[in-house]
Structure formats: structure tokens, C-alpha cells
């Protein structure tokens, strides 16, 4: 593919850390269309603060894949919303593995959504299942309008993926966003990751945890949103959501590999996963 998408290294930070996961021919075509030549000081600082940051990102994504796998058989057809989609080719993974289960995929982001669509159009010409929506996810009024215009159907079950975003918004903004997807029978399922507050972190891991938070707050020049498990539970209660489970990265690693090499206890790995019904 002659076209190479060149974006700032910080915009492809998470994608770069998750490269070992993108092994299928379709995902490889997508990765090959992105220019990774520029080095990132942020990526270097994150790895210096916590050498296993890449593994944390990969297990976060593997946890999401596993949660999607569990959900797919529950309904014959459903929608998938990827809020804050970034450059991650999750839609390609979904099409490769669950095309027959999916009515439509909505990718929402305020960044390089048009450029991402251009790559998808080259490697998947005339693909009709994916809708790209350029929108700030905290602008809920606009998002609601754009989703409706793009064919989102509130009466159909949906998987809502909110990966790597809650760290940069407030809990109040998270509540307002999730309220768009509430249903009377809680047919929608939401998959979210959150960064842990220090009181949830084992003493032996605390220096790495604090190092990552310090790096990220310097990068965004603001507060990095961290939460304890009780706060997340309270947010879900406010939404009227039903918690299915919280999953520390050590549980994900053990489930997928059969052992714990990188993450040995809850609280290690900066973040945890949550899956709930809304």
C-alpha cells in the first residue's frame, strides 16, 4: 500500500504498544498503512517508569476480546459502539471473527477518524458495516444526533467499548455519556477500563504506578482520572447498571496464559477492567 498515514507519535502510542496482537492479514494491512518511523518521548518515559507498560496495554485489549467473545452468543445480532476508537483496528478484528453476529459497528473519535476511514476503504472497499463518526464523546447532545443519523438503533442490543478514555475525562462526564445507552431491560453491555487509585495498589508495585501517573499528568498537563473499586461501583449504581465483574489484569493474564508472569496480584498493571449491563 503506497499510502502511509503519518500522525504524531503520541496519537499512535497505544497502537504501537499493542502491535504484537495485530497478526491477521487484514490487521497487518492496516498496520502497514501507518508510519511508525517517528519516535515518542512519551513512550520512552512510560517504559522507563514501568517496563511492562506494553504488556498492560496488550492484556487490556485481550480482556476486551475475551469479554466480546462471551457476549456474542447471547444475541443473534447486535450493534457495536467503539467510543474513543482512536487508531486501534478493533473493527477489523470484529469483522474477521464475528461478522455474522454484528448489524453495524460505530467508531467514534474526535481525532484521525477520516484518515482511518481512508485506510479501511483501501483494504475493505465497499464495507458497509462500519460507520465512522467524528465527535467528542463528552458532547453527548451532538453524539446522540450523529449516532441516530448514522443508523444507531436504540432498541437493539449493543456492545459498548470504552477503552482508554475514562482516564482523561471526569466521572461526571462518564455518567452523562453512559446515560445515552441506558435500556429498561439492561440489554446493552459496556466494557470499560479504569486507572486505579493508589490505595488499591500493592506496596511493591506502588513506585511503578506513581511513575506512570506522574508521566501522564505531565503529558496532559492536568489530572489523570484514577478511581478505587468502590467509586466505580458507586458510579454504576448511579447509572442503575448491573455489574457483571471487575477484572484485574492478573486475572486476565492467568485466564489467557495459565500463569502469572507479569501481573501477580490485583492492583498491578495500572488499570483494571469492568464489564456491566446498562
Describe this structure in words.
One of its GO terms (biological process) is methylation. It comes from Chitinophaga niastensis. Keywords: Methyltransferase, Transferase. There is one protein chain. The protein has 278 residues and is of the alpha/beta class. It has one domain (9-277): 3-Layer(aba) Sandwich (Rossmann fold). It is 41% helix and 17% strand. The protein is built from eleven helices and eight strands. It has helices at residues 13-17, 25-32, 41-49, 53-71, 90-98, 113-123, 140-149, 171-178, 206-220, 229-239, 249-257, and strands at 78-83, 102-109, 130-134, 158-162, 189-196, 226-227, 242-248, 271-277. Strands 1, 2, 3, 4, 5, 6, 7 and 8 form an eight-stranded mixed sheet that branches. Helix 6 links the parallel strand 2 (102-109) and strand 3. The termini are far apart.
Draw up the topology in text.
Elements: H1 13-17, H2 25-32, H3 41-49, H4 53-71, E1 78-83, H5 90-98, E2 102-109, H6 113-123, E3 130-134, H7 140-149, E4 158-162, H8 171-178, E5 189-196, H9 206-220, E6 226-227, H10 229-239, E7 242-248, H11 249-257, E8 271-277
Parallel strand pairs: 1-2, 1-4, 2-3, 4-5, 5-6
Antiparallel strand pairs: 5-8, 7-8
Helix pairs in contact: 3-9, 4-11
InterPro entries: Ppm1/Ppm2/Tcmp, SAM-dependent_MTases_sf
GO biological process, one term: methylation
Protein name: Leucine carboxyl methyltransferase
Query: Which class best fits the helix and strand makeup?
Result: alpha/beta
The total count of strands amounts to 8
Biggest sheet descriptor: 8 strands, mixed
Mean pLDDT: 93
Helix run count: 11
Q: Please compute the radius of gyration using only Cα atoms.
A: 18 Å
Number of domains: 1
Ends distance: 41 Å
**CATH homologous superfamily name?**
Vaccinia Virus protein VP39
Helix content: 40-55%
Amino acid at each position: 500500500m503506497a499510502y502511509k498515514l503519518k500522525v504524531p507519535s503520541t496519537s499512535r502510542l497505544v497502537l504501537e504498544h499493542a502491535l504484537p496482537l495485530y497478526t491477521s492479514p487484514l490487521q497487518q494491512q492496516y498496520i502497514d498503512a501507518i508510519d511508525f518511523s517517528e519516535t515518542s518521548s512519551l513512550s520512552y518515559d512510560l517504559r522507563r517508569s514501568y517496563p511492562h507498560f506494553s504488556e498492560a496495554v496488550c492484556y487490556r485489549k485481550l480482556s476486551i476480546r475475551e469479554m466480546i467473545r462471551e457476549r456474542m452468543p447471547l444475541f443473534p445480532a447486535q450493534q457495536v459502539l467503539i467510543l474513543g476508537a482512536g487508531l486501534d483496528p478493533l473493527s477489523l478484528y470484529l469483522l474477521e471473527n464475528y461478522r455474522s453476529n454484528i448489524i453495524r459497528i460505530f467508531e467514534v473519535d474526535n481525532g484521525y477518524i477520516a484518515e482511518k476511514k481512508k485506510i479501511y476503504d483501501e483494504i475493505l472497499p465497499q464495507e458497509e458495516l462500519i460507520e465512522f463518526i467524528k465527535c467528542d464523546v463528552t458532547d453527548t447532545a451532538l453524539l446522540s444526533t450523529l449516532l441516530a443519523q448514522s443508523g444507531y438503533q436504540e432498541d437493539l442490543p449493543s456492545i459498548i467499548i470504552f477503552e482508554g478514555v475514562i482516564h482523561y475525562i471526569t466521572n461526571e462526564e462518564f455518567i452523562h455519556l453512559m446515560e445515552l445507552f441506558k435500556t429498561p431491560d439492561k440489554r446493552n453491555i459496556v466494557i470499560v477500563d479504569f486507572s486505579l487509585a493508589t490505595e488499591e495498589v500493592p506496596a511493591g508495585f506502588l513506585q511503578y504506578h506513581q511513575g506512570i501517573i506522574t508521566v501522564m499528568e505531565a503529558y496532559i498537563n492536568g489530572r489523570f482520572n484514577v478511581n478505587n473499586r468502590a467509586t466505580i461501583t458507586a458510579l454504576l449504581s448511579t447509572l442503575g447498571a448491573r455489574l457483571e465483574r471487575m477484572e484485574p489484569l492478573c486475572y486476565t493474564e492467568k485466564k489467557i496464559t495459565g500463569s502469572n508472569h507479569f501481573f501477580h496480584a490485583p492492583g498491578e498493571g495500572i488499570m483494571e477492567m469492568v464489564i456491566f449491563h446498562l
